Amino acid sequence: MSATTADLATDTAMRRNVRLLFFCQALMNSAVVGQATMGALIGYSLAENKSLATLPMALQMLATMGASIPAGFVFARLGRRPGFLLGAMGSFLGSLTFAYGVWQGSFLIYCLGAIPAGLGFGIAQHYRFAAAELATPAYRPRAIALVMAGGVMAAALGPELVKHSKDLLPPFLFLGTYLFLALMPLICMALLSIAVLPPAPPRAAVNTPVMEIVARPAFLTAALTAAVAYGVMNLLMTSTPLEMMLCGFGVSASATVIQAHAVSMFAPGFFTGRLIARFGARPVILAGVLLNAACVGLALLGKEFMHFTVALVALGLGWNFMFTGATTLLAEAHSAAERVRAQTANDFIVFGTVACTAFGSGLLHATSGWYMLNLMVLPALVFALWRVTRPPAPAA
């Protein structure tokens, strides 16, 4: 086989495996999107104290944050495939526990399902890192963005599953949905069995301490930019349906806005990688910062349906540009032997921020109001702007 033919075969195999990771990401995210669609409704129906209706989702985000620790251990010792299989099993057990809680009418059991479901979602966040490791340096930004674009399929599949399966097993509303959602990680496991995934990273003679990795300017820029992107997005997205309700809009209107937001979050994944490859990660992140600032401006202009819709579309686009760019920067902030520790620390920071905004969004909206809530995110955006405009640190 000639060198050119061998290179072509290798490139074809790489792209095939990135596509498999795209579908795995879509399947795992479908379970999460489906849960987000109905979780609060089920929590409200099961909880005696109605103020606890969103507790299952809050617990799921905390478990997502905590997943970075066991994920890092498994990925470092055994490689990507066992780690992703563990995550899929967590999602599977979470869906079954949710289903059992609905069947028993138990809020406690339903809340317990959030723990394995959150662990599964947290481990699934590493699909983008696996894509970066599989890809050549030139293709890496596109591989990361393509895998993240799996959320587009999830945004369509998750709500549709809820819509068409919620009444399958009367009188238990949503019981059939959770049984269908349990199939998503099983299909994911089948795809993982045929994918070629990175093995366990090489063991360094002396392991670099995690705090030394975290202290690097390149790591801080990547992790803090990703945390700002996710934190700002989660804070404003979570509060939007509440503000729309107070403005007199119905559930269907807010659902339309959130759906448009979800598509704008993930659809750019089909071209964000090309933008990063052409212009670099930092200019794309700066464009994301400006889009998030535009979201705030639109939210302050008025409270008509179009204001909410366009603002959240801008928010989704801004999140995609910032988060994809930050993930690309992270790949340059560590060596091959350090990658799992760096990725674990990154996701702990990012999803710790998401958990805080999940708990704080409703409180800030209630105490400070919609306009002040939007203004509060501007300092974080200015901070991200400052981080990415600093001179780049040397790559690890």
TrEMBL record:
Domain (Major facilitator superfamily (MFS) profile): residue spans on this chain: 210-396
SUPFAM superfamilies given in the database record: MFS general substrate transporter
Species assigned in the record: Muricoccus roseus
Domain of life assignment: Bacteria
InterPro entries (alphabetical): MFS, MFS_dom, MFS_trans_sf
GO molecular function, one term: transmembrane transporter activity
Transmembrane segments: 20-46, 58-76, 83-101, 107-127, 139-158, 178-197, 218-237, 249-271, 283-302, 308-333, 345-364
Pfam families: MFS_1
Protein name listed in UniProt: Predicted arabinose efflux permease, MFS family
Keywords linked to the UniProt accession: Membrane, Transmembrane, Transmembrane helix
